[in-house]
């Protein structure tokens, strides 16, 4: 089944393919990715919109926490050591939540990689998203692939200079906006923006924006695919994550080979012809400058644009889509075994299709069950377990906390009437942005009484303490016991309670006494 | 290197260096490395112009920015002093009693006093202010010269039996070896020990009570509760400045030891003394 329509062959070299890979000390060969269109391109536009939207807009979301806390929904308040995330407020000692999220992100990457390969690289990695954005600008100003190649090779002229200046200016503007958005996560966004433009912001804000502007511009505009190939460790790590059941962008040789420019002529001459018309569309759209038909490569970020390019060609020549597709290595290998002639060792299209052009029934196609295997289930299990653990910890955490440090020097004090006194530094953590009146009381040691430094000196077993909103309150407490009751090995509890919310926390403290007989 | 040598396998020129038949290829540096290198060279040139760098005969070049780490420290210290400024002013203006009543100011003075205490006071009173024989424990509720905030302030400021200060606490207990018979001294020592239940020779106690009433009650009081005006300690409680056994009491009657404390007002200034007074008062025994 052959086709009359001519498919234009693109003159393109896969500059970064293994066959032609440059030594490190030669200049980079530029990649001019052609615009692709199709399902995956649509999906990538959507992801770009969502990820960039999240990044740029999040700091501007407001969240009312009352008069004692900032009203920014997501805020890393490093100066005051607080992290606000919508209704959640995290103190430094609760940073394990963030550590837990990082562990989940790590396991999540394992899970995603073992199922759908380098989806992170191809769709959501900031490098990929920003390079995509920079390419949009480049295409808008300089045109698509051929125009850009032509412009690049043209001698300098006013027109070329103008285009280049505009392009780089827009890139720099995007880079400044990118660096600028970052700092808004660390301070009240509207205030900081005003301070920033009027030159009132802290030096660290300007330095941060400058550094991120430089990295965004250099990585997104100038270095592009080199960041992934030479700088990023993830392509190396992912090699350990993929297995034969992971989905990767695959050129299906068993269907495509032998490729032929002039399929009709070749078929007429009685040669066997595969589906690949060698149009190089897959190479032209590749932002990494590789040829997917060389097989799996370190450089491939699985952005799937070659699938879109190839699918549109297949549509044009009336073949089914999927010459380049997401496939697992296991499927690929079993299909290759069907397609390969055992005697000659070459791919025979006759073994794949019958004369009517129908695919052999033994050809394996991806089915959803492949996603559920021991490995992915273990990853998913570990990921959810940590997630559930964090949620349980989050919803059961204390918002009123008590810590007690006992004086060790001196361990005890003998008073003039012979009674024994111990000193404690009591730290009350009021972890909500509201002022609270809490009671601190003693539990155990029935004859013990306490006094609090700074309050009237009356002795009692319960005192009321005003706790400032969202603050640590430190009080010095002295606990006294008559000599006869103060014996070795005693312990008791400090109990703090918020009467209105009946939240409570306690701390077991020891009572030190002189050695017997002294 | 005499002549060019091209490596056959790679087609790359060698450096001409050879070790046991192994020749070093003269590959160019990777470009990223080269550009990084150039960038650091340019950075270094500007850096050595901007910042202190080149060693000269007496000192290094100062750099056009005039930066010095010492000036940085000075700035930070000045900023720290400035941050304390309002508090220090308030401490200067207010009496110790007023400082105590102001929650914020009390906390500031307590912290500042604790720091000053570690520098100036711990040598005698101990790092926990727990004292030692002859040096009073400042945590407890017995005070030789009074435990109110004003009295503590007065004592720290002018010292105890300190020759250089006219307002110092000057009173001393006479040496009773020249006044009392040795037997009377033993009797009164037994009586004083009995006040805190530690008499070793109870039969001497009644006679000792008489000796006490005749000789000691003038300063220590009829009930032996002491007199803070004179620095006469309370002899009836559980706390003793020196040892509390009968022989030690007798020795103290015969030939009393007297503690001396410098007048800190003249040395540290009024602000520090106020802070120290607030800190000592906060140790739990202040009245």
What labels would you give this structure?
heterodimer, A: 518 residues, alpha+beta, Immunoglobulin-like, 5-stranded antiparallel beta sheet, 4-stranded antiparallel beta sheet, B: 287 residues, mainly alpha, Cytochrome Bc1 Complex, Chain D, domain 2, two-stranded antiparallel ribbon, 3% strand
Your description of this structure?
The complex is a heterodimer of chains A (518) and B (287). Chain A has 518 residues and is of the alpha+beta class. Chain A has helices spanning 39-57, 96-116, 119-124, 126-142, 145-153, 158-183, 189-197, 203-223, 225-231, 234-241, 253-256, 263-268, 281-285, 305-317, 329-339, 349-352, 374-395, and strands at 74-77, 82-85, 88-90, 247-251, 324-328, 400-406, 413-414, 420-430, 436-443, 449-452, 462-467, 471-481, 490-498, 503-511. Chain A has 17 helices and 14 strands. In chain A, the strands form four sheets. In chain A, strands 6, 7, 8, 10 and 12 form a five-stranded antiparallel β-sheet that branches. In chain A, a hairpin with a 2-residue loop joins β2 and β3 (88-90). In chain A, α4 runs antiparallel to α6 and α4 (126-142) packs across α8. Chain A is elongated. Chain A starts with 38 loop residues before the first helix and ends in a 7-residue tail after the last strand. Chain B is mainly alpha-helical. Chain B has three domains: 1-67, no CATH class; 72-168 and 261-281, Cytochrome c-like domain (Cytochrome Bc1 Complex, Chain D, domain 2, Orthogonal Bundle); 176-254, Cytochrome c-like domain (Cytochrome Bc1 Complex, Chain D, domain 2, Orthogonal Bundle). Helix content of chain B is 48%, strand content 3%. In chain B, β1 (14-19) and β2 form a beta hairpin. The radius of gyration of chain B is 36 Å and the shape is elongated. The interface between A and B is medium-sized, with 26 and 28 residues.
């Amino acid at each position: 089944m052959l086709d009359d329509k001519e498919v234009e062959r693109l003159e393109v070299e896969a500059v970064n393919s293994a066959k032609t890979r440059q030594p490190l000390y030669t200049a980079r060969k530029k990649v001019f990715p052609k615009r692709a269109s199709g399902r995956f391109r649509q999906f990538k536009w959507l992801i770009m919109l969502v990820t960039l939207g999240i990044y740029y807009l999040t700091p501007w979301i407001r969240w009312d926490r009352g008069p004692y806390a900032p009203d920014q929904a997501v805020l890393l308040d490093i100066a005051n050591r607080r992290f606000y995330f919508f209704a959640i407020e995290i103190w430094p000692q609760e940073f394990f939540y963030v550590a837990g999220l990082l562990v989940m992100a790590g396991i999540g990457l394992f899970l995603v990689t073992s199922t759908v390969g380098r989806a992170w690289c191809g769709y959501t990695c900031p490098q990929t998203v920003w390079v995509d954005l920079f390419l949009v600008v480049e295409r808008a100003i300089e045109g698509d692939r051929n125009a850009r190649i032509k412009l690049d090779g043209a001698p300098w002229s006013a027109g070329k200079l103008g285009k280049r200046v505009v392009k780089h200016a827009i890139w720099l503007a995007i880079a400044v906006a990118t660096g600028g958005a970052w700092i808004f996560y660390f301070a009240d966004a509207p205030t900081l923006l005003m301070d920033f433009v009027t030159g009132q912001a802290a030096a660290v804000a300007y330095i941060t924006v400058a550094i991120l502007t430089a990295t965004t511009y250099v990585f997104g505009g100038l270095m592009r695919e080199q960041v992934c190939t030479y700088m990023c460790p993830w392509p190396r790590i992912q090699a350990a994550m993929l297995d034969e059941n992971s989905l990767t962008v695959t050129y299906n040789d068993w269907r495509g080979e032998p490729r032929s420019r002039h399929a009709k002529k070749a078929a007429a001459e009685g040669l066997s012809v595969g589906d690949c018309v060698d149009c190089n569309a897959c190479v032209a759209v590749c932002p990494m400058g590789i040829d997917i038909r060389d097989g799996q490569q370190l450089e491939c970020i699985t952005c799937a644009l070659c699938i879109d390019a190839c699918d549109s060609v297949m549509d044009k020549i009336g073949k089914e889509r999927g010459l380049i597709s997401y496939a697992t290595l296991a499927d690929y290998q079993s299909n290759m075994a069907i397609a390969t002639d055992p005697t000659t060792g070459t791919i025979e299209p006759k073994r794949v299709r019958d004369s009517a052009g129908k695919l052999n029934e033994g050809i394996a196609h991806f089915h959803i069950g492949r996603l559920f295997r021991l490995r992915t289930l273990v990853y998913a299990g570990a990921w959810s377990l940590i997630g559930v653990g964090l949620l349980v910890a989050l919803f059961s955490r204390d918002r009123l906390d008590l810590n007690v440090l006992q004086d060790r020097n001196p361990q005890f004090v003998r008073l003039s009437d012979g009674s024994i006194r111990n000193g404690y530094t009591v730290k009350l953590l009021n972890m909500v942005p509201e002022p609270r009146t809490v009671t601190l009381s003693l539990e155990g040691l029935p004859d013990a009484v306490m006094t609090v430094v700074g309050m009237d000196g009356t002795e009692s077993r319960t005192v009321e303490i005003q706790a400032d909103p969202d603050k640590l309150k430190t009080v010095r407490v002295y606990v006294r016991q008559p000599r006869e009751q103060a014996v070795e090995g005693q312990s008791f509890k400090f109990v703090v309670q918020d009467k209105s919310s009946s939240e409570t926390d306690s701390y077991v403290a020891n009572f030190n006494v002189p050695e017997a007989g002294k | 290197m005499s002549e060019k040598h091209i490596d056959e396998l790679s087609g790359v020129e060698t450096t001409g260096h050879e070790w046991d038949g192994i020749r070093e290829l003269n590959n160019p540096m990777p470009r990223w490395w080269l550009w990084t290198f150039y960038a650091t060279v340019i950075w270094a040139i500007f850096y050595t112009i901007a910042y202190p760098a080149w060693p000269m005969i007496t000192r290094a070049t100062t750099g056009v920015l005039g930066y010095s780490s010492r000036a940085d420290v000075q700035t930070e210290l000045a900023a720290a002093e400035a941050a304390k400024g309002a508090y220090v002013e308030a401490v200067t203006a207010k009496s110790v009693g007023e400082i105590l009543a102001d929650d914020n100011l009390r906390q500031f003075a307590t912290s500042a006093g604790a720091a000053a205490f570690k520098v100036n006071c711990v040598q005698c009173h101990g790092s926990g202010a727990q004292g030692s024989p002859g040096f009073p424990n400042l945590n407890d509720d017995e005070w030789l010269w009074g435990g109110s905030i004003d009295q503590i302030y007065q004592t720290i400021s002018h010292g105890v039996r300190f020759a250089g200060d006219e307002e110092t606490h000057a009173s001393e207990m006479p040496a009773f070896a020249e006044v009392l018979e040795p037997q009377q001294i033993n009797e009164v020592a037994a009586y004083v020990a009995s006040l805190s239940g530690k008499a070793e020779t109870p039969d001497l106690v009644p006679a000792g009570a008489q000796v006490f009433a005749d000789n000691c009650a003038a300063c220590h009081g009829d009930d032996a509760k002491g007199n803070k005006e004179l620095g006469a300690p309370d002899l009836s409680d559980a706390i003793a400045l020196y040892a509390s056994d009968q022989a030690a009491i007798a020795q103290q009657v015969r030939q009393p030891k007297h503690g001396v404390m410098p007048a800190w007002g003249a040395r540290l200034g009024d602000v520090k003394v106020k802070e120290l007074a607030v800190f000592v008062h906060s140790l739990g025994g202040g009245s």
